[in-house]
Amino acid sequence: MNKRIRFTLIMLAGLSLLAAAALLSLRLGAVSTSFSEMLSGIMEGKGIVFKYRLPRLVIAVLVGINMALSGSVLQSVTRNPLAAPDIVGVSAGGGLAAVIMLLLFPSSPPLLLPVAAFAGAVVAGFIVYAASAGPGGIKPERLALAGVAISAGLHALITFMIVKFALDSAQALVWLKGSLYARSWQHAEMLWPWTVIGALVMLFNFRKINLLLLSEETVSGLGLRVHAVRLLLLGAAVGLAASSVAVAGTIGFVGLVVPHAARLLVGGSDSRLFLPVSALMGALLVTVADLLGRIILPPVEIPAGLITALIGAPYFIYLLVNRKSPAAG
């Protein structure tokens, strides 16, 4: 089948599934809402659906898009199929900053938490970038190794904080697992500009993303300013991931697994095809994970990050077993 026809069919199927998941997400929860009540609440701008479920749905979609696009670009830039925001230090940096705020400054205003988490994620990304820089500029192998090492160190600090403040760490543990509980329109407003900017950067640089999949010598021979382009795309990937971590906590596996699934469906050699599919699949995965977390054991909520891990880990193992190189097109 022609790749473009296949891409169109996959996008239509994905949009249909996302629409169905969105309707169920708005309707179901600890208290079920009829479709008529749901529509009237949205039209009138009041009620449980408009105030709580709709912003939560919007955030789930945006977080899924951000994490999937971030992982796709990181894997392309580093040419490493295991690269993802939660592996190269960004998620761990945001997580550490959030844990520090929750445990050391529990009386601080709630809206300072996402600000601190965003700053922590960006700082971690900068440290990884600085650690991977060398005489020849940024090398993909060094970037990936530096990310793994710094991420491990940050996770160790997070564990130390949790152990030291064990009696007060319940909220921090929930945040670290990635949850959309109690998210509001304020959080959505903080998130969507990053989604738009990051997506536009990738849209206007899709040819350069394709070139970065080639060998270093080939790319340099084509006249591409490799280091400048890599820095721009890394900045966009870090911004997407950091904004998501700041709002929703560390929802793992989305940036790792979704890009592989997208490449498996449409191939990985043309970013015009696999980036939109990645974004759509990421939005669908987080939306479904948040929905399942709310309806499995009501009124208890299972964090969306746990659901994505339960879905993503087995699928990633399947990909590793059945494909020599999941990132290959």
TrEMBL record:
Pfam families, alphabetized: FecCD
The keyword tRNA processing appears for this protein: no
Regions that span the bilayer: 53-74, 86-105, 111-131, 143-167, 190-207, 228-253, 273-292, 304-321
Main location: membrane
CDD domains: TM_ABC_iron-siderophores_like
Ion transport recorded as keyword: no
Keywords for the protein's UniProt record, in alphabetical order: Cell membrane, Membrane, Transmembrane, Transmembrane helix, Transport
Annotated PANTHER family: FE(3+) DICITRATE TRANSPORT SYSTEM PERMEASE PROTEIN FECD-RELATED, FERRIC ENTEROBACTIN TRANSPORT SYSTEM PERMEASE PROTEIN
UniProt record similarity statement: Belongs to the binding-protein-dependent transport system permease family. FecCD subfamily.
Protein name: FecCD family ABC transporter permease
